[in-house]
Design brief:
- It comes from Meleagris gallopavo (Wild turkey).
- The chain is mainly alpha-helical and 1055 residues long.
- Among the domains are: 21-174; 456-553, no CATH class; 956-1035.
- Helices cover 66% and strands 1% of the residues.
- The chain is built from 50 helices and five strands.
- The chain has a three-stranded mixed β-sheet with strand order 2-1-3. A two-stranded antiparallel ribbon has the order 4-5.
- β1 (371-373) and β2 (376-377) form a beta hairpin.
- α34 packs across α37.
C-alpha cells in the first residue's frame, strides 16, 4: 500500500512547540496508532500524520525516532514505516541529520546494558526507514554512514541475528555500479575479503559478483582472497561448511538460504556446476546426516531445475540427492512427520509451467518416474504436474510409459530399498517383484493421464484406451501392422494377476471416458460413443486370431451374444427417428456396456440380459421401458462402479418415457422391507457374535448334546454306576476317548454351521442394503430429470416410509448412510426443487386429500424429526397447487384482498378454505397437546412460504391451556414480524390482525395476573409488543388493559 505524498507546504522545521499543543489530543494520538499492531490502523495514522506535519515537524521527527527503539516489537516497524513516508514526502529534510538523531538517541555505547537490544533495533529500523524512503541511494554520504552503521550492528547477532547483513545485501542490490565502485567498495573490502568466514559475507560477495561483474572481475577476486573463482576444488570444503551453517540457521523458516541459491547461480556462471553439485552437494553436504541440510539439498534441487540444461538436468535427476529424496518420501508416510513432497511438487509444477522446451519437460517427467522404491515410483500415479506438459512432451511421455510397460528397464531406474525392506526380503524373485510393481504404477499412470485436465487429442486418449484394453484381455502371437499394439513384443509375459489388474484399471478408464465431453458425455467428436470405438476394436481383435489370442477365449454362447449385440447396435445407428433418439441412444449404451463386460464377467446373467435387450431393441416392444428398468435393476446388483454410473446415465435418457409401472418396479425394490425372519435371524446373529461367551454358555446347556454325552459315558461305564471297584482297562479308555472326541467334534461342527449361517444372513443383509442404496440413485435421477412429471407424487409416501423405518431401526453405519441418502433426496431433490408439476388440474381433489393425509400423519407421529418430513411434504404439495392454474376457474372460497389476489391467482388450484381448515386443526393440536410432534418452526415455515394461511385467525392464545399460552405467544411473536405476511395484506387488514392479536394477549395477561404469577403474564404481554410495528405500539398506548386501571397499565410498562 503506497501512501500518497502530501501537497507542497512549508518545511516542518519551522514549527514550534506551541503549534504542537494547538494540534491537541488528536495529533498526539496518531503516534499511539502508529505503534499498534494492526496494519490498517498504522497506515491510516501515517496518512493523517503527513497532513498534520505542517505545524509539528520537529516534534514528529523526534517522536518517530524515539519509537524506532520501542520495547514492543510490533511498534518498531510502524514507526520505521512512518519515518520512511515522512522522509519520502519531505525531501528537504536532510538524511544525514536524521541519521545523526538516530545514532544520538540510540547510542549503543552510552545506553544501559538492559536497553542494548532496544537501541540495536532502533539503529536497524532507522537505517531501514532511510532505505525505504528511496533517497538513501542518492545521498552518498548518508549511504556511506548507513553502511558503516550496519557493519557495526552485524556484531550484535544475539539480538539482530542476520538482519543487518540481509539489509546490506538489499541496499547493495539497489546501488548503481559506479557508486559501488567509488563509494562502497572501500568500506566493504574487508567483508568481501573474509567471504569464506561466514555465510553472510559469502552472500554479500555473491550478490556483488552478480550485480557488479565489471567491478568484481576474476583479477579483483584473486586479489581479495587468492582465487579468481568461487567454485573450485580448493574452496569446496569451505563452501560446504558455510552451506551447512546457513542451513541450520534457516531451519525454522523452512526455506532455501539465499546464499545457497546465489552460489548455485554463480557456479552456473563460472561453468563449474557439475563440480559444485557432485563435490559440494552430493559428496559434501550428505556426509552429515542432518535434517536441515537434507532439506536444503532438496530445495537446491528444486530451485536448480529451471536453470539447468538438458544434460545437467538428467545428471541431477540421477544423483544422490534424488535418491535421498525418494527415501524421504517413502519413510515419512506416517502422520505427524514433515513431508517435503508437496514442496517438491510445487518446484516441478513451476518448472513445467515456465519451460517451453518439450525435451526438458520430458526429461523431468522421466527422471521422477524412474525414482523407484523396489520398482514402484515414489511420485503418485495421479501426479497433477502432467497438466502443464506440452502436447509433444505428453505424447513422448506416453510412448515412454508404454515402452517401459512392455520392456521394463530396471537399470535406468534409480531404485532403492529401505532398511526394513532389506531385512524383510525373502527368497523370492526380486526382479519379477519389481517389474510387477512398476507395471502396476504405469497402467494407473496412463489412466490418470486420461483423467487429468491436460489438453489432449482424442487420438491420444484412444491410443491409451486401446493399449490398456489389449494388455488386459489379449496377448500377441505374431506382429502385424494392422494392430499397432502387436508391433512390440512384451519382454516379460504378464501373469494372470497382472491381466486382472489391467482389466480393473481398464474399466476404471471406461468410467472416465463416460464423463469425457465434447457436447455430450461419453461421446467423441464424430458423435459416436467412446465405448463403441472400443467395442469395434475388440471385434477386430477377436477376428484376428492369427495374430492375437484372448486371455480367456469366448464360449460359443458368448460369441453369439457378441455378434448379435454388434448387429443390434448397427441397426439402431441406422434409425433416424428423432422422437426415439433417446430410446435408441439408451439401448446402444446399454448394449455396448454389457458387451464389453463379457471380457470380464462370463456369467449366464450377462449373456441372457444381452439377448433380452437385443430382442427388445429389435422388436420395439410397447413395454420396452419396463424391460430396461428390470435390466438396470439386475445390473445394479453387480459390484461395479462403472455399471452403476452407466445405469444412471441410461436411466436418465429413458426418464421421459418412464411409466407408472416402471417407476413402481424401482420403488418396490428400493422400498421393499426385508423378511421379518431374516431380520430376526440377522439381529440374533449380530447379538450372538458380539457375545461369544454367551453362545458357548448356551451351547453347554444344550439338552440334546448332554443326553448324547451321558449315553456315551454310560456305554463306556464311566459314570461309576457299576458297584465294582474295577477300573477301565486301556482299550476301554481309548475307545471311550475316541467316542467322546467324535461327539465333541460333531457338536463343534453344528456350532460352526450355526455361526456360518448367521454370517451368511448378515452378509446378505449388507448386500441388500447396498443394493437399495444403488437403486436410490435411479430415484434421484428421475427427480432431477423429470421434476414436472406427475409420477413424482407417487414417490413421496414411499420415501417417507423409508425414512420412518430407518429412524426406528438399528443405527449401524450402512443403515445411517441409507437414511441420509434418502433424506437428502427427499429434501433437496423433491421438496426444494425449483421446478414442479404444472399439470395437476385433474388431480386437485387427490392432492388436497394427500395434503390432509400427510398433515394428519405428522400430527399423529411421536417423533418430531419424522413429523417434520411429513409436514415438509405437505408444504411441497401446497406449492404445487398454488403454482397451478385451474381450467374450471371456480369462485374463491373466501374473499381476498387486492394483495392476496396478487399472491394467489384467481384460477389457482389451491382450495384455500380446505387447506386452511387442515392446518388450523394441526395448529390447535400443537397448542393443546402436551407431547405433540409438531414444532413452531413448522408453522413458521408455513406462514413464511404461504402468508395466505395467516388469513385464518392468529394462534388462539386465549383458548389455549395455560401451559401452552407462553408457547402460543412465542409463535405469535415470530409470525407477526414476517415481511411476507405484511406484504400480503393491506394496511387496514394488517391493523385488524394486530388488534385481534393484542386483544387475545391482553385477555390472557389479565387472566394470568389475577390467577398466576405476574412474571408470566408480563412476559406474554411484551413478547408481542416487542415485535410489532409503529401502529401496533400506537394501539397499545391508546387502549389500556381491559379490567385494569391506568396505574396498573403504567406499572406493567415500567416492568
Amino acid at each position: 500500500r503506497t501512501i500518497p505524498p502530501a501537497p507542497p507546504h512549508p518545511s516542518p522545521g519551522t514549527a514550534n512547540r506551541c503549534g504542537v499543543l494547538r494540534k491537541g489530543r488528536a495529533f498526539l494520538d496518531l503516534f499511539w496508532d502508529i505503534a499498534k499492531p494492526e496494519q490498517d490502523v498504522r497506515l491510516e495514522a501515517t496518512e493523517n500524520l503527513l497532513r498534520h506535519l505542517r505545524d509539528g515537524g520537529e516534534y514528529a521527527l523526534k517522536r518517530l525516532v524515539e519509537g524506532l527503539g520501542a520495547t514492543r516489537e510490533a511498534a518498531r516497524p510502524g514507526f520505521s514505516l512512518a519515518l520512511a513516508q515522512v522522509l519520502q514526502a519531505f525531501e528537504e529534510i536532510p538524511l544525514c541529520s536524521v541519521l545523526e538523531q538516530i545514532k544520538e538517541k540510540h547510542n549503543l555505547e552510552k545506553v544501559k546494558k538492559k536497553l542494548v537490544r532496544n537501541a540495536a533495533f532502533g539503529n536497524f529500523f532507522g537505517v531501514m526507514a532511510l532505505f525505504q524512503s528511496g533517497r538513501l541511494v542518492k545521498d552518498q554520504k548518508a549511504l556511506l554512514e548507513s553502511i558503516q552503521l550496519l557493519q557495526q550492528l552485524a556484531h550484535h547477532q544475539t539480538h539482530l541475528r542476520d538482519l543487518p547483513s540481509k539489509t546490506l545485501v538489499d541496499i547493495l542490490s539497489e546501488v548503481p555500479e559506479t557508486v559501488f565502485e567509488e563509494v562502497l567498495f572501500g568500506i566493504l573490502q574487508a567483508d568481501l575479503t573474509s567471504a569464506f568466514k561466514s555465510p553472510e559475507n559469502l552472500h554479500l560477495l555473491l550478490v556483488g559478483m552478480q550485480k557488479f561483474p565489471g567491478v568484481l572481475k576474476p583479477k579483483k577476486l584473486k586479489k581479495l582472497f587468492g582465487s579468481p573463482t568461487i567454485v573450485n576444488e580448493e574452496n569446496i570444503p569451505r563452501l560446504v561448511e558455510l552451506l551447512e551453517s546457513a542451513a541450520k540457521s534457516e531451519k525454522k523458516d523452512k526455506k532455501l538460504p539465499s546464499v545457497g541459491l546465489d552460489l548455485l547461480q554463480v557456479s552456473l556462471k563460472e561453468g563449474a556446476f557439475e563440480l559444485f553439485w557432485n563435490e559440494a552437494v552430493e559428496n559434501g553436504l550428505f556426509k552429515e546426516k542432518s535434517g536441515p541440510v537434507s532439506y536444503m539439498c532438496y530445495r537446491l534441487l528444486g530451485s536448480a531445475l529451471p536453470l539447468l540444461s538438458l544434460d545437467q538436468l538428467q545428471m541431477v535427476l540421477k544423483g544422490r540427492v534424488m535418491q535421498h529424496y525418494g527415501e524421504h518420501v517413502v519413510t515419512t508416510q506416517l502422520p505427524d512427520r514433515f513431508k517435503f513432497a508437496p514442496e517438491m511438487e510445487a518446484y516441478v509444477d513451476k518448472f513445467l509451467t515456465s519451460c517451453d522446451d518439450p525435451e526438458r519437460q520430458l526429461a523431468m517427467m522421466i527422471g521422477f518416474s524412474t525414482l523407484t522404491n523396489q520398482g514402484y515410483p515414489v511420485v503418485p500415479s495421479v501426479w497433477r504436474v502432467v497438466r502443464h506438459l506440452q502436447p509433444v512432451a505428453l505424447q513422448k511421455y506416453v510412448d515412454w510409459l508404454k515402452d517401459m510397460f512392455l520392456k521394463p528397464d530396471l537399470d535406468c531406474c534409480l531404485d532403492f530399498s529401505t532398511n526394513r525392506q532389506k531385512q524383510n526380503q525373502e527368497n523370492k524373485n526380486i526382479a519379477q517383484h519389481k517389474i510387477a510393481r512398476l507395471r502396476k504404477w504405469i497402467i494407473h499412470r496412463l489412466m490418470s493421464i486420461v483423467e487429468s485436465p491436460v489438453k489432449k487429442e482424442e487420438s491420444l486418449v484412444m491410443d491409451i484406451s486401446r493399449f490398456c484394453f489389449f494388455h488386459a484381455f489379449f496377448e500377441t502371437k505374431k506382429k502385424t501392422s494392422q494392430i499397432p499394439e502387436t508391433n512390440v513384443l512384451i519382454s516379460e509375459p504378464l501373469d494372470e494377476q497382472a491381466h486382472s489388474l489391467a482389466a480393473n484399471y481398464f474399466f476404471g478408464l471406461l468410467q472416465t471416458l463416460n464423463t469425457l465431453t465434447k457436447h455430450i458425455h461419453g461421446v467423441t467428436a464424430d458423435g459416436k460413443l467412446w465405448i463403441f470405438h472400443l467395442v469395434e476394436y475388440a471385434s477386430e481383435l477377436l477376428s484376428s486370431e492369427k495374430y492375437v489370442k484372448a486371455v480367456k477365449p469366448f464360449t460359443k454362447e458368448q460369441r453369439d451374444a457378441w455378434e448379435r449385440t454388434l448387429q443390434s447396435v448397427k441397426n439402431l445407428q441406422k434409425k433416424k427417428s428423432k422422437s426415439d433418439s433417446a430410446k435408441h441412444f439408451a439401448f446402444q449404451q446399454l448394449l455396448l456396456l454389457m458387451a464389453i463386460h463379457l471380457f470380464k464377467v462370463s456369467t449366464f446373467l450377462f449373456v441372457s440380459c444381452l439377448s433380452i435387450i437385443c430382442s427388445c431393441a429389435e422388436n420395439a416392444e410397447p413395454e420396452w421401458v419396463e424391460v430396461i428398468v428390470e435390466i438396470l435393476l439386475s445390473l445394479l446388483a453387480q459390484p461395479s462402479l462403472l455399471i452403476r454410473r452407466i445405469s444412471n446415465s441410461v436411466f436418465g435418457r429413458i426418464c421421459p418415457n418412464l411409466t407408472k409401472k416402471g417407476l413402481q418396479l424401482i420403488l418396490d425394490v428400493s422400498l421393499d422391507d426385508d423378511d421379518d425372519e431374516s431380520e430376526d435371524s440377522s439381529d440374533d446373529g449380530d447379538s450372538e457374535e458380539e457375545n461369544d461367551s454367551e453362545d458357548e454358555k448356551n451351547e453347554e446347556v444344550d439338552e440334546d448334546f448332554r443326553s448324547q454325552l451321558i449315553n456315551v459315558l454310560q456305554a463306556g461305564n464311566a459314570l461309576g454306576e457299576d458297584e465294582s471297584d474295577e477300573e477301565l482297562d486301556d482299550e476301554a479308555m481309548m475307545a471311550l476317548d475316541k467316542n467322546i472326541s467324535a461327539l465333541f467334534a460333531e457338536q463343534q461342527k453344528r456350532i460352526q454351521a450355526k455361526k456360518d449361517e448367521k454370517d451368511r444372513i448378515r452378509k446378505e443383509k449388507i448386500l441388500r442394503r447396498d443394493f437399495k442404496i444403488k437403486v436410490l440413485d435411479l430415484v434421484e435421477v428421475f427427480l432431477s430429470k423429470q421434476p414436472e412429471n406427475p409420477l413424482v407424487f407417487d414417490i413421496i409416501e414411499p420415501l417417507l416410509q423409508v425414512i420412518e423405518q430407518c429412524m426406528s431401526s438399528d443405527s449401524d453405519k450402512q443403515e445411517v448412510d441409507f437414511l441420509q441418502k434418502t433424506a437428502h433426496i427427499f429434501t433437496n431433490s423433491l421438496c426444494r426443487a425449483k421446478q414442479y408439476c404444472k399439470r395437476v388440474d385433474v388431480l386437485q381433489d387427490d392432492l388436497h386429500t394427500f395434503v390432509e393425509r400427510l398433515v394428519k400423519k405428522a400430527c399423529k407421529h411421536t417423533d418430531s424429526s419424522v413429523a417434520l418430513y411429513y409436514f415438509s411434504a405437505s408444504l411441497y404439495l401446497l406449492k404445487v397447487l398454488k403454482g397451478n392454474v385451474s381450467d374450471k376457474s371456480p369462485a374463491l372460497p373466501v374473499p381476498l384482498s387486492k394483495k392476496q389476489t396478487n399472491t394467489i391467482p384467481q384460477a389457482c388450484c389451491l382450495d384455500v378454505e380446505r387447506v386452511t381448515l387442515i392446518y388450523q386443526q394441526a395448529l390447535t393440536q400443537f397448542l393443546s397437546k402436551r407431547n405433540s410432534a409438531l414444532t413452531s418452526s413448522m408453522f413458521l415455515d408455513l406462514f413464511t412460504r404461504f402468508p395466505i394461511m395467516c388469513n385464518f385467525s392468529p394462534p388462539h392464545v386465549s383458548s389455549s391451556p395455560f401451559l401452552f399460552q407462553a408457547q402460543a405467544c412465542l409463535l405469535l411473536q415470530k409470525v407477526l414480524p414476517l415481511r411476507e405476511l405484511k406484504l400480503s395484506t393491506t394496511k387496514e387488514e394488517w391493523e385488524e390482525l394486530i388488534r385481534e392479536s393484542i386483544s387475545q394477549v391482553t385477555e390472557v395477561t389479565s387472566f394470568n395476573m389475577l390467577n398466576h404469577s405476574c412474571n408470566t403474564a408480563v412476559l406474554m404481554y411484551f413478547i408481542v409488543w416487542k415485535k410489532c410495528s409503529w401502529y401496533t405500539q400506537q394501539c397499545l398506548c391508546v387502549e389500556p388493559l381491559e379490567g385494569h386501571s391506568l396505574r396498573e397499565h403504567a406499572h406493567i410498562g415500567q416492568f
